[in-house]
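User: My collaborator and I are trying to settle a disagreement about how two of our proteins should look. Neither of us wants to argue from intuition anymore, so we agreed to look at predicted structures for both before our next call. Could you fold the first one, then the second, and keep them clearly separated?

Assistant: That sounds like a sensible way to settle it. I'll keep them separate. The first protein:
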Amino acid sequence: MTRIYIDVDGILAQFVPALLKNYNQKHGTSLTPNDVTDWAFKGIFKHGQHWWDYTYPENFWTELETYSWAHALVAAAKATGKPYAFLTALQDVEDRRSVMSRKAWLDKHFTVDPTDIPSKRLIVAQRKELVVTEGDILIDDYIKNLWAAQKVGATVFLLAQPWNQGDFPERMTPEQILTALQVLK
């Protein structure tokens, strides 16, 4: 059975704009998401700087804004009638607070039906290809996650973002992803 997995940061949550706001305030710069042309912030972060250094204050994760297409994307996944989940990858450096904050964020922005709580659909894994299987669909903004998912036979949708330009066959707009999901009904 086909399952749909939706990444959170960069797909639903505006992680990069919030991180850059903190970075700009700390360093007196005026970077925008269009300046981030690499998922690892190459050319922006100096040696020893990491993206998690800019995920403050305490409510950073829960206060992220949604992208304009986020609700339509989740609604389209639900409308397919196929099982869906939110699949996020966390690194070793992140803590329980990050997971709990993502759960709170999902519940805050995507609870429509009290019997279908979004945080209960959250899966956290370092390697998404260990979760997705052949025939599943992964919607993500990180090329490495998608390459790995393709190798196990998943269908992948790469949401076009400034930081994921590179060697990947097809980057999709939110509208193209919505259309592809509607075909699954």
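The second protein, kept apart from the first:
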Amino acid sequence: MMDVRRVRATDVVDVSRLLEELGYPTAEELVAERLAAIADREGAVFVAEEEGKVVGWVHVSGAASLHYGPFAEVTGLVIADAHRGEGIGTRLMGEAEAWANECGYPTVRLRSRSSRGRTHAFYLGLGYSKVKEQVMFTKDL
């Protein structure tokens, strides 16, 4: 039986493993630091746990902009390869949307890499609309 709950510090190894599956290998120490920082800000990480093992997670946080106003943003969602297609992503997105609603955010936004066609179909199936395509820029400081 699958349980959805807030992430715990003891989930670092599983969260790190899933980050690697998503294509973002990250040292466990950094994941632990980042989870602690998220807990100190307006946001939440929920995990799906099956038989004592984390098989998926979603990160949602509050944001605002001058042109959109306040919104919640799903900044990451990953389900273990062996568990995709079991409804886990739907459950986790439902948890993220419930969090956003409870916090008073009228909209949930997310971004997805252009090459993730299967993921785009998943979000469209949940009722999300494709709004625009854009290019993301970054600069290390």
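Some points you might bring to the call about the second protein. The mean pLDDT is 92. The CA atoms of residues 9 and 35 lie 8 Å apart.
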